[in-house]
Amino acid sequence: MKNLRTALIAFGFIFSLFALPYVGSADSLSLVSRTKLSDYPWGVAKRNSYLYVPNRGTISIVDVSNLNSPIYIKNHNSLTMALALYLVDTILCCRGGSGFVTINISNPINPTNLFWKDIVGSSNGPRGIYSTNNRCFIALTSFGFSIYNITNPSSPESLGTYNTPGFAYDVFVRDSLAYIADQDSMQIINVSNPAACIRIGAIATPGWCSGVTVNGIYAYLACTSTNGYNGRIFSVDVSDPANPVMADSVNNVQGNPLTVFYADNNIYAIAGDYYSKKGMDAPLPVGCKEKATVEGGLRVINVAKPDSIYYACGFNTFSDPRDAIAESGYVYIADQDSGLVILRHYLTGIEGEPLQEARPKGSQISIYPNPCKQSTTINYQLTKPEHVTINIYNINGQLVKKLVDTEKKAGRYTILWNCMMDNGQRVSGGVYFCEMTSGGNKEIKKIMVVK
Question: Which of 1, 154, 211, 446 is 20 to 30 A from 378, alpha carbon to alpha carbon?
């Protein structure tokens, strides 16, 4: 039996060398489906069973209720050269080469354009767009980023603009801080007063920083390469925003890492194709059929331990990818003239289980870092809609902090505990307990706080 197992694993490894576009290590990615779309898909957003894919002119609507056979519905005229989307309930915030558009998709196959505005920097290839607390943040490359109030999506109000020192390619916002992928650095900006944003801190990056996301006390950065194979993904400790510190990196990521996003202890990075002319990176027309020197695709980085991250697996797509989202173990990729590519992420290669089944049974929460000093991140999941409470207690059973007490839909959630009590004072070092109650289930995990 042992010899048979060894032989099967060896066969799987050899097969993986020839069965491109699959590339794998501990985890694996398998192709679910591929759907041809018009023009050149550049971004992707999902609501229920519909995908919205901007394609540099219109937005393709795709029914993915059957992932094995997605159905292209139609193209919607977005009034702008659509590049990037951010979904807020039934409102699509769309960023293009010619402006900012809000679109109502409450009728999923018959969207309604609500607002259009030409914005500064529209000709400089902007990418990042992010929305939180009724505010939309838009990266403007050489003009920094702008902020809009979208409380009324039919009439967004401009709140301010901040000019970063480099080229703002991506933006992620949490609480009052904006994290900007700014060419040769990550900038951290206090945006509590949009009319007078204040730079809090920054960290230099080797390579061109083009993507940023944040989970817990760590930011994750995508930095493009100089020759197509040495792009990097960085983890950065931002527990002290005034003094961000590099924690770890994954080097030699094939292709040019452009975007990053977090899901289930993984960073999913889109690495664009790398084209070379006489050894120098050179731009080619969109949809160019010339074979890339280095093929791009999806790269998965395991960040369960943010100070010790590693490459988990990858998949070379059929064209030049530009964006992706992940949900319940499936990854949806905008792959330029290849169209929409759907992959499934498995955790342990040929013997693996799908990502959504990977959490140990009986465990709903995970905590990292633990022990913690400044703060810790609590990840939890629900298999069905339930009322959830998450509380922190001291060793005497006294309530220290109430973190969650609300109805939640099925899904995965993250909350940060900053080691503070409900009265605003910091807890002392010692043992604390995180108690999660959902439905009739209760789970308790120990947290060690160190000084």
Answer: 211
- Name 168's bridge partners: 141
Residue 377's alpha-carbon distances to 75, 218, 449, in angstroms, are 40, 10, 13
pLDDT computed for residue 219 by the predictor: 96
Amino acid residing at 54: P
pTM for this prediction:
0.73
Asked, for residue 254, whether it belongs to a domain, the answer is yes
Give me the residues paired with residue 79 across strands. none
| Residue 19 token pair | 């069965």
> Which region holds residue 239: left if phi is over 0, alpha if psi is between -120 and 50, else beta?
alpha
Looking at the structure, do residues 441 and 333 belong to the same domain, yes or no? no
Is the CB of residue 392 less than 8 Å from the CB of residue 400? Answer: yes
Residue 383 DSSP symbol: S
Q: Per-residue pLDDT tens for 115-152?
A: 988 876 544 454 689 999 999 999 988 889 999 999 99
Domain boundary among 326, 351, 376: 351
* Domain hosting residue 394, numbered range: 365-449
Residue 430 backbone zone (phi > 0: left; psi -120 to 50: alpha; other: beta): left
What are the C-alpha distances in Å from 158 to residues 65, 155, 263, 291, 344?
37, 10, 31, 43, 40
Number of domains in the chain: 2
Q: What is the CATH number of the domain that holds 380?
A: 2.60.40.4070
For residues 200-209, one letter each, b for 16 or more C-beta atoms within 10 angstroms of the residue's C-beta and e for the rest, the string is: bbbbebebbb
